[in-house]
Amino acid sequence: METNLNCIACHLQERNREKTEDISPLHTCIFLGGINLTLLDNSMSAQQFLKQKATSNSASGNEDAFYVADLGDIMQKHCQFMKELPRVKPFYAVKCNSTREVLQTLAYLGTGFACCSTAELDMVLRMGVPATDIVYANPCKQISHIRYAAEHGVRRMTFDCESELFKIAASYPQAEMILQIVADNRDSWHSLSGKCGVHINECENLLEKAKSLNIQVFGVSFHTGSGCKNTHSFRKAIEDARKAFDIGKKLGYKMRILDIGGGFPGDTEFLPTFEKFAEVINKSLDQCFSCNEDVEIIAEPGRYYVSSAFTAALNIVTKKEVTKKDGEGRRTLSYILNDGTFGSFLLNYLQIEEKNLKPFVGKDFDTALELFPSILWGPTCASEDEILNNVDLPELEMGDWIFFPNMGAYTISMNSNFNAFAAPKVYFVLTKEKSL
Predict the structure, then answer these.
(1) Where does residue 94 rank: exposed (0-12), middle (13-18), buried (19+ CB within 10 A)?
(2) Which CATH number goes with the domain that contains 342?
(3) pLDDT score of 403
(4) How many domains does the chain have?
(5) pTM assigned to the model
(6) Do 76 and 65 touch, CB atoms closer than 8 A?
(7) Is 228 helix (H, G, I), strand (E, B) or coil?
(8) Is the dihedral of CA 47, 53, 54, 55 positive or negative?
(9) What domain range includes position 378?
(10) Cα separation values, 361 from 314, 366, 377, Å
(11) Residue 378 counted as domain residue
(12) pLDDT, the chain, mean
């Protein structure tokens, strides 16, 4: 994979030299394989580019919200994944962020793709990704979508119930089915176990039903939930997957695929670290699935790849002073921003128990300045459009920028267009030091 990364970065630099010998790193636009981006030299970080872009946009009268996405960060994450989990091939979860530039970058790097709909399948297939590098990772599929997968040779797909088996038997008996089992999601930001997966004690009956329908089952999958915070969840799920494997083998199935799903951390400063997760996963894999066993191990990382690569820049549209009923307490300020719950922050709204947003101010200010409790709102007319309540910030003004890091996962892909507020534009950059 290092050769791939070097080729991409070197090709970008060569194309840059062909265009001009002396261009500011802020304006060096590159076009590679349909990706428009800015190649940053070692003198500029993605965060510096972000601040300069905000300043230049304001100067030109453009106050629209936007993103800066560092493809070099994604490349670095890929190198880390391959190093820390050498037995596991990543199949990127398209649902997490289906931006064309992200998918193309990952296709260059040679990842597989985990898709959940015909639209996602189509996006990936149109990029020339082989059907063998795609897993249809949705255990409950529309019949026409199953037929679409069959027509395009996408054979690997998950299931977790009898009704899905009947659909497969009628529409795509050649499919290579993967049994999705329940994993412990209690310590994850967003649980999937209430909807997807079969309990381990129900696996044998379901596999027997598959056998009676002449459906080929080749493996087992699980998902610990998005934003998993407990390494034990992976250890227990791998142990359960081993049990399901053995049940399948007992019934005569050639079990050869293990899909350990997603849930890997992608935010900066997240604990436990990815390295800690990898340590537990590797140990569990070695204990339960020997290297001598002919098992292909895949995963479905989404948040891991893209979260830290994207930073959102929001502009203050309106500033208000919050009036306290009793007239006491600290002075509180309220800011209306130009992106919110119905745009990039829907998942943040749903994540009631733990808000993990850590905004920072775009302009420089004296650290000795007083900080005020602040409420950040989105731009729509809905009262639910609250991004953060009671975050301490210096006093800001209309036109100032507020930046939100770790915004690559389940943000752009969940934009609703409510009140016809468009999704923010994304400026793609490639940081040289991260790409090599």
Answers:
(1) buried
(2) 2.40.37.10
(3) 98
(4) 2
(5) 0.90
(6) no
(7) strand
(8) positive
(9) 2-70+308-435
(10) 10, 12, 15
(11) yes
(12) 88
